[in-house]
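Data deposition worksheet. Section B asks for the primary sequence of the deposited chain exactly as it was used as input, without tags or linkers unless they were present during the calculation. Section C holds the resulting structure in token form. Section D is free text for depositor observations; keep each observation to a single sentence. Incomplete worksheets are returned to the depositor.
Section A, Depositor: J.P.
Section B:
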Amino acid sequence: MTLTIAVLIYAAAMTLANLSVATFGPAISPVNAFVLIGLDLALRDWLHVRLRAWQMLALIVAAGVLTYLLNPAAGKIAVASSAAFTAAALVDWLTFARLRGSWLFRANGSNVAGAAVDSLIFPTLAFGALMPHVVALQFVAKVAGGAFWAALLARTVQQAEA
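Section C:
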């Protein structure tokens, strides 16, 4: 996978997740968490070893701006998403950097930390209230989705490098 493709997929998944939450509300969150945010968690770790910190932050903010431009009514979702992704990215990055072992082990370990932060911040800001059931469902779905996508990404990268 090239860096450009990974960046485009990352931004598209984050933007699609934001727009679907703006359209369907909290009910879509667990599905988004597994499919789209799980993908973003895995790609974030892949990108972390290839981008500088400021580039990753710019990518997160750009996806939030893109969400707003595509649907200005989704502004609150875009802000909540950018704030949650920025905080989660920082926690993910710090955890990923401190863990030792294979990329897959480090990605899954950091995804747990990042998913916890994102799952708490996003729905609280996006919907204006702490919703424990949404936080819990999102966390479980993000960890499972992140593990799925990280395994698939690791396998794809290994095959491409062979």
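Section D:
The two ends are 13 Å apart (CA to CA).
The longest helix spans residues 132-161.
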